[in-house]
Structure formats: structure tokens, C-alpha cells
Design a protein that fits this description.
By secondary structure, the chain is α+β, with helices and mostly antiparallel strands. The protein is built from 11 helices and 13 strands.
């Protein structure tokens, strides 16, 4: 297993800002991004107007569109100026740590596998935990193939500098559903439905618990994995993992026309408390009611969550 660290990533950003004009300009543009806070059930959501993210928010991820475009995460299709840091996990899974040229965070990474494989988390959750351990200044996140991933055909994680998403520090109302000497599972009881929080001091134990959660989730007909988003960070010898269970890719407002349209395609960062609006009209008009409605629509229902929790408890 190859080791990486935050200093290596810092040097990568410095090199890329010096050599890659587009990336440098897009990060500089973050200084002028408009932001506001909206309270939803006591949780401080940030809303960000970030026009550069239209590339991701409006990405066509249907099978036909994916087949017709070159994969932008494959090494041969990436810009020649884009450099990366190799990360080899368990001697077999080869990742490359890249700076994301269309950032949300002041430091935003994309971490694709070297080989072109579908976006499926099964068997790779422990690599996510290890990345969080080696990059403790970052929160690692995973967007499922129909949960915000703009490259569902190429497996990748992303990472953003810690302290940006409210979910990392806001007080959360939770109820414990499982506890062992190494791992605790809780369910969120306010703000949004379908959220499981894992705290663990063991990478092996956490991975084993996650596998059981994953195996208990429904897979929709024609899909390859359950719909979910995952956030993960490491601090003082333990991991915090937040698992969002989804029912839909995009809310109805994404497809509506005229005044009813809100162009938002929620992924891990939005669920972590930062709603990204690539259009100024949406930034201006979005309300606490809109955010609450979008969350209720894309996350699983209370009834399905209750049944899922009982199933998870029965196999742990």
C-alpha cells in the first residue's frame, strides 16, 4: 500500500495552480461565489451560487450519453497538464489523486481508479476509510452512479477540505441502533430521513459493518447497486461515516420549466449541508421549504427507513 499525505496534496495544488490556467482561474473564482445560510429544522444549510458547477449539475448520465462521450477520468483522456499522485491500495487497487478543476471546496480532489470500472462501492469501502486516514485534513465522499456521480462509468471518490460542510460540525439529533466495542451505528432523527451515522475505531470492523448494511439495502430493478451517498472523515484515531439512503436521482423541480424549475442535482456535498446552485435565479429564490421538499423527495421514506433499520439490526 502506498502512502500519501496532506503535504503531498498541498504540493500538488501548488504545482497545478502554476501550470494549469483553467484550474487556477476556477479556484480563484471561488472567492467571488455568493453564499447564504438557510435554517432547516435547526440545521444550518449553506446555499452556494457556483456557475462553474453547471458541468456536473446538468451532466447527462443516461447510458446513451455515457457511451457517446470519452471518459474524462481515464488517464488518456485527461488534460496533459493535469498531474496526480498515485495511491495503491492493498497492492491491487490503483487510484490517482487529482485536483478537481471545477471546485466546490477551496481544495477539492477527484480520486479515480486507474482502470475504467463502473461506479460501485462494494469491496472498496475500506479504501475510502484508508484515504480518510491518510488525508485527515479532508472529508472523502462517494456519489453512487445515480446519486450525483457525473462519471458513473468510472469508479472514483472525491475529497474536500474539512470544515466546509455543516454536517461535520453541526449538532445532530441521533438514536443509537447498534453498538460494539469498535463501532457504533446511529440514525438521524431530525432534518432529513434515511441517514445512518457510523463511528468506528477499526477499519476492518467498520468495513464489515458497512458490508452488512449494504447487503440489506434494496437494489432497484435494472440498477447495479443500492442508491446511496457516503461521507467519511478521520480524526484522532476514529472514523465518522455518514450514509444517505436514496430513492431518487433528481427531484421533480430539476425537470420542471419556467418559475417552478430549480436546477439542482443533489449529491454528497448537498446532503452534507451545502446546496450548490449553478444558476443565480435558483440561488435567489430557494427557500427552506424547497430544501426540505427536495430532501424528502430524494431520500427514502420514513416507512422504508424503519424497515431498513430493522433489517440491519437483525443481521448485525
Amino acid at each position: 500500500m502506498s502512502e500519501i499525505n496532506s503535504e503531498m496534496v498541498k504540493e500538488l495544488f501548488e504545482e497545478q495552480f502554476g501550470s494549469w490556467e483553467q484550474a487556477r482561474n476556477n479556484y480563484k473564482a471561488l472567492d467571488g461565489v455568493l453564499a447564504k445560510e438557510i435554517q432547516v429544522d435547526g440545521f444550518p444549510f449553506k446555499v452556494q451560487f457556483n456557475p462553474a458547477r453547471i458541468v456536473s449539475s446538468a451532466a447527462k448520465v443516461d447510458a446513451k450519453s455515457i457511451q457517446e462521450r470519452k471518459c474524462f477520468l481515464c488517464k488518456e483522456n485527461r488534460p496533459a497538464v493535469q498531474k496526480g499522485i498515485d495511491f495503491l491500495y492493498k497492492g491491487k487497487d490503483h487510484y490517482t489523486v487529482l485536483i478537481n478543476p471545477f471546485p466546490i471546496f477551496s481544495r477539492h480532489l477527484t480520486i479515480p481508479m486507474e482502470c475504467h470500472q463502473d461506479q460501485l462501492i462494494k469491496g472498496r469501502f475500506d479504501a475510502m476509510l484508508e484515504l480518510a486516514r491518510q488525508l485527515p485534513d479532508y472529508t472523502i465522499f462517494y456519489n453512487g452512479p445515480k446519486c450525483g456521480a457525473s462519471a458513473p462509468d468510472h469508479f472514483h471518490f472525491q475529497a474536500g477540505i474539512k470544515g466546509f460542510m455543516p454536517i461535520e460540525s453541526a449538532p445532530l439529533k441521533m438514536k443509537v441502533i447498534y453498538h460494539s466495542p469498535k463501532t457504533t451505528l446511529s440514525r438521524l432523527t431530525s432534518v432529513m430521513n434515511g441517514v445512518i451515522v457510523m463511528e468506528s475505531n477499526s477499519i476492518e470492523d467498520a468495513a464489515g459493518v458497512f458490508d452488512k448494511i449494504y447487503s440489506s439495502l434494496k437494489v432497484k430493478e435494472g440498477e447495479s447497486e443500492p442508491m446511496l451517498n457516503i461521507l467519511c472523515w478521520y480524526d484522532n484515531g476514529s472514523w465518522a461515516v455518514i450514509i444517505y439512503l436514496r430513492s431518487k436521482h433528481r427531484p421533480e423541480c430539476f425537470f420542471k420549466e419556467g418559475e417552478d424549475n430549480i436546477l439542482i442535482s443533489p449529491a454528497s456535498v448537498d446532503l452534507g449541508g451545502v446546496f450548490i446552485t449553478p444558476l443565480e435565479k435558483d440561488f435567489t429564490k430557494i427557500t427552506a421549504g424547497d430544501i426540505s421538499s427536495i430532501l424528502s423527495e430524494i431520500l427514502i421514506s420514513s416507512e422504508e427507513f424503519e424497515a431498513t433499520i430493522e433489517k440491519i439490526k437483525s443481521i448485525l
